[in-house]
Specification:
The structure holds two protein chains of two kinds. Chain A has four domains: about 20-115, Glutaredoxin; about 145-345, Rossmann fold (3-Layer(aba) Sandwich); about 355-440, Ubiquitin-like (UB roll), CATH 3.10.20; about 445-549, de novo design (two linked rop proteins). The model of chain A has no long low-confidence stretch (mean pLDDT about 95). In chain A, about 45% of the residues lie in helices and about 15% in strands. Chain A is an alpha/beta fold. Chain B has two domains: about 15-75; about 85-170, Glutaredoxin (3-Layer(aba) Sandwich). Chain B has a four-stranded mixed sheet with strand order 2-1-3-4, covered by helices on one side. The mean pLDDT of chain B is about 90. The chains are: A alpha/beta, B alpha+beta.
Chain lengths: ~550, ~170
């Protein structure tokens, strides 16, 4: 079967060699919303009109990362002297095609020798922006499915697990549970029927890593899941995707169909005795379904409410069978680990956090978009060098990581390396990778209230502390933003944080107080400023009366 | 998997029921396929009415309470018909920081509806989304399925006004 992969690779290289120029247009969600599909069509027409069809090709590729400058186009991405264009419009197509054999179009140039592109290390995103996500051949030509074939033909299931353990990979959904350990537990669980689930219910507002991976390189996920299936003894996998991601779903469907046809999924994969099928299950807009037991309930067609653990899904999961649940980004790292070995992966990163992490940069930052950096990279480097600093010329106040389960890290702590332990020590979490940068204009009380409103509406209602507690916390935060809070409210808020955190059933409730607790820890002054005016100095009373009038 | 439940006659001879039946068939008429089926009903009919909920419940041999419970639990399912045009405003963190609440308020004020409601003439549905995952382009709104990034209040209101105008022209 390796021969077959090699054949496809060779054929792809020959095809690529026939063209003097390759123009890649990003057709991932970000650029698509600025008409990149129309630009691609315009480029194709232009190439045809110039009779260049035999030597120039136009491809739609995945995310190139710098969403702020979209729509992005690269010319001859894999040759020396690659050229990137930013903020391209349909009208620029003629100039770009005309420039292919001469000098690049300077007014559209996007420099690639800047930290944003140079400081990244891409593993999960290694193919993003370089391949057409709707063609399995291009994935195979970049060593795709060779990890799976290596596992099936040269390794026993326990060898595969050993490699994953050796890699030190930890869950990229935010929890940071060691992936190898999870795989070991599921592999050891009794039962002849087991399942693999890929959690693509990316609900954190401000996070779009998983969506991008699914849209840019869907085969990577399928390969990772199939390797997992082989390692733990499962022959059925499910990808649970948000219903809000239609493009990701469509590309994943295409990928599954192609993989089946290429015998990389289905029965007797690659001529071996291993069977593995993958089906898609659509989410329907419920944040709580990112929690593993709620997700399982949803796949079973029920309301997505969590249940107490243990028993953990590793022993009692989908339809009561042992089930392995990993996040999209976790699966995206599996194929490279099997290809290059666990030790290779473990050499990247720092301390107990190995490898790389994908982050979605958003908010008041110049280079909004998707980045992948080695674990242990200082926050300062991410914000000021890779991120290009604060947009609008303001000062950075804090960054928010981990969405509604995370916290705000003030600018004073930006020398902290990004790893699981350091971020939790600061009262935030790694989370799935959303990183929202806030400048001085952001009110921290307002941010806390925003996330509490989120948790309040997304609480599934199953357990009382979360259902009732989040409402009360939201009411108190509301009082703060109306400047009607009293010291008693502050005390009550802190008590509620403690109660909800310690007594809720699932992760949603247990982490819901995090945004409040972290802002209270670092920005307590702002809460004090939001107390009732008479408690806060007479001059403020006058000021507020003025506003009220 | 052998089908546990028999195929039932759909409530009407509307051809769209066949698509719904196909989804249920693919899932072996098992209750597990409930969410998939509801997705199909919503895609085909635009929303879930009582008739379709009853039909799906009977076909999958599921209690109506379960079907109703599931369809009200998930945000994407709607029990009311949508307006002829939709405007989705993203309330994700990045959009929030970039001032989307002001845009939402402006639209609510202009059209006299709250988020989640439809104008009384069925012209426009105003919907909020938790996060559209296009945070790099914040603030983001979607007009009739077409996503618009870095949107400003005037721009958004102008787009909505254009929809109304186009409709008025068609009626005239």
């Amino acid at each position: 079967m390796f021969d077959r992969l090699e054949e496809i690779t060779k054929a792809e290289q020959e095809t690529a060699g026939r063209f003097d120029h390759t123009v890649d247009v990003c057709v991932a969600a970000g650029c698509m919303s600025s008409q990149s599909v129309a630009i691609k069509e315009a480029l194709e027409k232009e190439v045809e009109a110039h009779g260049q069809g035999h030597r120039c090709r136009v491809r739609g590729t995945g995310c190139m990362g710098l969403c702020a400058a979209g729509p992005l186009i690269t010319v001859d991405a894999e040759k020396p002297g690659e050229i990137m264009y930013k903020q391209v419009t349909v009208g620029d197509a003629a100039d770009i095609v005309a420039s292919l054999d001469s000098t690049p179009v300077e007014r559209l140039r996007c420099r690639t020798d800047v930290p944003f592109f140079q400081r990244q290390k891409k593993i999960a995103l290694e193919n993003s922006g370089l391949i057409d996500p709707e063609r399995i051949e291009e994935y195979i030509a970049r060593e795709g499915y060779s990890g799976l074939m290596r596992a099936l033909t040269e390794m026993s299931p326990s060898d595969v697990i050993d490699e994953v353990v050796a890699s030190g990979l930890r869950g990229r959904g935010g929890g940071g549970y060691p992936t190898g350990l999870k795989w070991t537990t599921v592999a050891k669980s009794d039962g002849d029927v087991k399942y693999v689930i890929c959690n693509a219910d990316e609900g954190d507002p401000g996070a779009f890593m998983d969506r991008s991976v699914l849209e840019s390189d869907p085969h990577r996920i399928l390969e990772g899941m199939a390797i997992a299936g082989y390692a733990i003894g499962a022959s059925q996998g499910y990808v649970y995707v948000r219903g809000e991601y239609p493009t990701a779903v469509a590309r994943l469907k295409t990928a599954i169909r192609q993989a089946r046809r290429a015998n990389m999924l289905g029965s007797g994969i690659g001529g071996t005795l291993f069977n593995f099928h993958v089906d898609i299950r659509l989410g329907a807009g419920a944040f709580v379904c990112g929690e593993e037991t709620a997700l399982i309930a949803s796949i079973e067609g029920k309301r997505g409410t969590p249940r107490p653990r243990p028993p953990y899904p590793a022993e009692f999961g989908l339809w009561g069978r042992p089930t392995l649940i990993n996040n999209v980004e976790t699966f995206a790292n599996i194929a490279p680990i099997i290809r290059n070995g666990g030790d290779w992966y473990a050499r990247i990163g720092s301390g107990a956090s190995k490898g790389t992490k994908v982050f979605a940069l958003a908010g008041s930052i110049i280079n909004t978009g998707l980045i992948e950096v080695p674990m242990g990279t200082p926050l300062r480097e991410i914000v000021y060098e890779i991120g290009g600093g604060i947009s609008g010329g303001g000062e950075c106040k804090a960054i928010q990581t981990g969405g509604p389960s995370g916290g705000c890290i003030p600018a004073g702590y930006f020398d902290t390396p990004v790893d699981y332990e350091s971020l939790s020590a600061l009262g935030s979490i790694m989370g799935s990778g959303g990183m929202i940068v806030m400048d001085e204009s952001a009110s921290m009380v307002d941010v806390a209230r925003y996330f509490m409103e989120f948790c309040m509406t997304e609480s599934c209602g199953r357990c009382v502390p979360c259902r009732v507690g989040t409402v009360h916390m939201h009411n108190i935060l509301d009082k703060f933003s109306r400047h009607e809070a009293t010291p008693h409210d502050l005390e009550l808020l802190e008590k509620l944080c403690d109660m909800v955190r310690n007594t809720s059933l699932c992760g949603l409730g247990q982490t819901a107080p995090n945004p409040v607790m972290s802002t209270l820890r670092y920005f307590r002054d702002e809460y004090m400023d939001c107390m009732m005016p008479e408690l806060n100095g007479a001059e403020r009373v006058g000021e507020l009366m003025e506003v009220a009038r | 998997m052998t089908p546990r439940n028999e195929k039932l006659e759909p409530p009407s001879d509307d051809k769209r029921w066949r698509i719904v039946q196909a989804t249920m068939q693919r899932n072996g008429y098992e209750r597990d396929g409930l969410i998939e089926t509801l997705h199909t009903v919503q895609e085909s009919f635009g929303y879930l009415d009582d008739e379709s909920l009853r039909y799906v419940a009977a076909s999958l041999n599921a209690p109506l309470s379960q079907v109703y419970g599931v369809s009200t639990f998930y945000h994407l399912f709607s029990l009311k018909p949508a307006g002829r045009h939709t405007c989705v405003v993203c309330l994700g963190t990045a959009c929030y920081i970039k001032g989307i609440p002001h845009l939402l308020k402006e639209i609510e004020r202009t059209y006299g509806i709250k988020a989640g409601e439809t104008t009384s003439d069925g012209h426009l549905s105003l919907i909020t989304a938790r996060c559209l995952g296009s945070c790099g382009l914040a603030p983001v709104a979607v007009f009739n399925g077409e996503i618009a990034g870095k949107i400003e209040i005037e721009h958004a209101l102008a787009r909505l006004a254009a929809l109304r105008e186009a409709e008025d022209v068609r009626q005239a």
